[in-house]
Amino acid sequence: MLVSESWIREWVNPEIPATQLAEKLTLAGLEVESITSAGPHPVPTGVVVGEIVTAAPHPHAPNLSLCQVNTGNGEPLSIVCGATNVCQGLRTAVARKGAKTGGATIDRKEVKGEVSEGMLCSAMELGLADSSDGIIELNPDAPLGTAIADYLELHDRVFELTLTPNRGDCLGMVGVAREISVLTGARLEVPVLNAIQPTISRSLDVRLEAVDACPRYTGRAIQGVDMNARTPDWMVERLRRSGMRSINPIVDVSNYVMHELGQPMHAFDLNRISGGIVVRRAYEGEELELLDGSTVKMSPGNLVIADHQAAIALAGIMGGKGSAITGNTTDIYLESAFFQPGGILGKARQFGMHTDASHRFERGVDSSLQLTAMERATHLILEIAGGSAGPVTDAVERSALPQARSIRFDYPEIERVLGIRIPAEDATSIMRGLGMTLTATASGWEVIPPGWRFDISGQHDLVEEVGRCYGFEKIIPAAPSANHRTGRHREGIITRYDIQQALIQRGYHETMTYSFVDRSAQRNLLDRRDAIPLVNPIADNMSVMRQSLWPGLLEAFRNNLNRQESRVRLFELGHVFDRADNERKSQEKNHLAGLISGLCQPGQWGCEPREVDFFDLKGDLEAVLNLSGDSDQVQFRSFQHSALHPGQCARIEFENEVIGIAGRLHPARQKFYETGQAVYLFEIDLAFLTRSGLPEFSEVSKFPVLQRDLSILVDEEIEVQTVLEIIRTGGGKLLKELELFDIYRERKLEENKKSLTVALTFQSDSSSLTSGEIEVVTDRIIGLLESETGARLRFQARTEADPAENTRKRQN
After folding, report:
1. pTM, whole model, 2 decimals?
2. Closest C-alpha to 545, from 578, 589, 512, 582
3. Rounded to the nearest 5°, which phi and psi values hold at 227?
4. CA–CA separation, 335 vs 142, rounded Å?
5. Which of 63, 168, 223, 638 ranks highest by number of CB atoms within 10 Å?
6. What are the start-end ranges of the E strands in 141-226?
7. What are the angstrom distances between the C-alpha of 338 and each of 205, 210, 305, 452?
8. pLDDT digits over 352-390, tens only?
9. Nearest CA among 748, 761, 762, 749 for reference residue 792
């Protein structure tokens, strides 16, 4: 929202400078993002209002004009100009000798044999527009000799307000002025408008067929308007400072009233309306060509303004081209309506649009403002473009309008919530200044919020209003006090902090991404049914709830790559959302997900650079699983997933329950995320990670260990996990440690075979083991492997050293 300081000070004029005013607005929740000059910097000097007395072709250059210009001071100036709109009687901006504009100094010079004593300026040369077709045209009554900077108020400043979605009331000057009045105590000057008495009887019948979405529609016919009338310079400038350009007097007035009062308006060509006005739902497949030239195909969910033949406007969003005013229009029909926010919300985005009208209607417009806006716009149109006004048609279904609701507001609640005592008279003054109706009670007030505040629904909102207007900065900081009791630490619970630290220590960075993701990107990544859609998504690429943390992590990964960060380690703890089995209710779970890509270690001289692989990811994940003490019960099993690379994907199981998945991103998905380097991902149910068994004491055996190495030949498709489980089963209680230290694949082996070598550590808690006892166990293990996997023993070795320190002379 752009706010002209000179315009707002016509409504309320506190005796404080612009910077202090901006600070007060920001502290009250209306953030002033910037204060900029309304005119160019520096402001032109020596440029005045002048009138072209005569304009004749240049005697030596037909494309130039030789003008005599009256600046109201002495003899007319002789000025050569090349603009095509030069004509006798035109008042424009004249840069005299010594004037400075656009960084240049104007001097007397000779042009094609004729002396030019200045320059006639265009809006671009004055710094008021990026381009222009000719010299600037001013009102015929612009006072001659007045500095252009004063006439156009170029010393004005513009506040850029960043408003939260609940403050739709401040999308008009009157709303901002009301806030300033409350914050500063300055008097609010509300102009008094007298109703325009109709001078013609022309009117249209208005029928409301969708009162749930449009309970009020106000219209008025105005005949005999002059579309060639000039919009006053002051209005053109105010519209420019509001971010709009002048189009024609009728459109300019409707835009001006919208920025002034916050009520969007629209004007139809009266003679292009058939019959009367019908506010209804669109028919299935009904089409409408809009003012911007686009054609939309509508459904019954869209609200339209129609005549007795077809739709003529997309309600609350944009008018139709077929009923639009043109340069030949003489009669107009002015519309001012109230649309329920829910009926407009998201409808503009449905067609890829966002208009000033939809922006306001989505946030809520006062349902009592339509008649005021109609009278204000009528006054301005009759003043600028002339014409005769008909009676106002006010079609309204009052039972469908927002109903005022009384809120009980207890005075002590202010101190309880804010921690500061605000005098009751100050609270009363603030609420009345904000437009609330108060009735005193024994404990406070009964409050009825004004029609323009859709966001006030309870006592907590009123406390906030009083607090922000009184000044949150006046609340003295105080440390909270509480009675503390030392709790017991439950060893059986792994905290989020523990998990975060385990990953951070391994070089990961935590990221927090949106719970809303792109539907197509998620569907492309996950092999699941449709996600839960958002009723009102904030963007097209955030239209559904995430079913996995991977879409957010991959988007963060892509952002890192775009900033030349190729070594990436990210994790996220967050909620995922999916439909329950009955499809009616949603279910929400906490997940942990991680991503790695790039080099295994930062570049250094001590080792060769190596890209990460699946086992780096698996090691990181096992470090987290070790927090629970149950990592030896977790199994990684080969798995197929549409988003992951075949052969480099595993599901994670605990007690036959799938708790997660890990693997390398499929090459096809890598192309989607525009990366050529491998990406590895995991995701696991956080509910498993946060529970842990309590540690139990067991005596350390005082008897020595015996170690054996087994090398077996198995089919390539046999999973290592399966082999290790069989060995653990066969080893029984005597098998204390099991380590796979070699997987061997060479041509000299049989086709589709691999050799697995494991180190076994045996120990008894009651006696020293003998070689014979160990042979019984190893024979049992070998027998199980042969019967269940078809494995064959390649060799068996006895080792005296610790397996981790063995130099592995047992080569294949």
Report:
1. 0.67
2. 578
3. -70, -15
4. 32
5. 168
6. 157-162, 206-208, 216-223
7. 17, 12, 12, 12
8. 899 999 999 999 999 999 999 999 999 999 999 999 999
9. 749
